[in-house]
Amino acid sequence: MLSKFFPHISKKPLSERVKSRDAFIYLDRVMWSFGWTEPENKRWVLPYKLWFAFVNIVMLILLPISMSIEYLHRFKTFSAGEFLSSLEIGVNIYGSSFKCAFTMIGFKKRQEAKVLLDQLDKRCVRDEERSTVHRYVAMGNFFDILYHIFYSSFVVMNFPYFLLERRHAWRMYFPYIDPEKQFFISSIAECFLMTEAIYMDLCTDVCPLISMLMARCHISLLKQRLRNLRSEPGRTEDEYLEELTECIRDHRLILDYVDALRPVFSGTIFVQFLLIGTVLGLSMINLMFFSTFWTGVATCLFMFDVSMETFPFCYLCNMIIDDCQEMADSLFQSDWTSADRRYKSTLVYFLHNLQQPITLTADGEAGIFCGHDN
């Protein structure tokens, strides 16, 4: 059903040309709408930069300030539940502003990473390898749409309920607008700004996930190539050595890809780690003591969305660490015992490098994974 509206979430047939960078199609479109990329036509550079400045000043600077002013301006009108609901969103929006800034600053690094993906794609000549790339590309686009559904559901659950109750869902301050006399105008403005805010936040959460998903795609392909080393009889030792050398180049490209993205995602994930405890704590207090049934459902959905900011990415990082160990095992278990001295010495060097896991850190300090056993 969804594939009728979003065709890129379905795996394309091998007759169609698909690149690894196609996993970012839907994400790049949303980022483009916020001014976070570059216009294809250079004559639109100035209007695009003006649009970028307007959107991001409003969303990343004025919106958090608006919520803070509302606390000062009309604090006595808040009920306990309204205050906690607004505060948990406000804290998340302040954090989102920093996450968006890190993502915008990392645009050129992400473009460099996509060029490296293009180089990795050149090695995918067999149908099985191309099919794997097609599957991961579809998965990346599907994750983007799935996040849109989950994040949008939070607004859809909140806004109609508070509108019918004639209350403001998020309590933002708008100059020259009386929130009581001009209730519908202020409510619609709140809904629009909150929708834009969650889509910006979504970009900062989905971008690391899809990026590392494509890293895992090419790690899986390399793992299979390592298993197949020296499996074709009749080839010369020089050809076997060249095959091993190509795998070493693939591994180097994967490392360069992750290194290009590491500074981009380090700050983003660090902010997420700082936020998740505070936001979930406020949400739990609100849920246990001050929520009605409907606001409780919306709060649970918000908590789920906040968890989605970190858990899938951390879980994926865990899987990549395991994949690195499996790559080393695959190389060691390949048919190398009858190889010549050059091949064996190259293999030992490569095996040593493969045993170093590919990891990401939050702000260069905290390792990113789900458990504590790595």
TrEMBL record:
It is a multi-pass membrane protein. GO terms for cellular component: dendrite membrane; sensory dendrite. One of its GO terms (molecular function) is odorant binding. It comes from the Eukaryota. Keywords: Cell membrane, Membrane, Olfaction, Receptor, Sensory transduction, Transducer, Transmembrane, Transmembrane helix. Belongs to the insect chemoreceptor superfamily. Heteromeric odorant receptor channel (TC 1.A.69) family. This is Odorant receptor. The lineage of its organism: Eukaryota, Metazoa, Ecdysozoa, Arthropoda, Hexapoda.
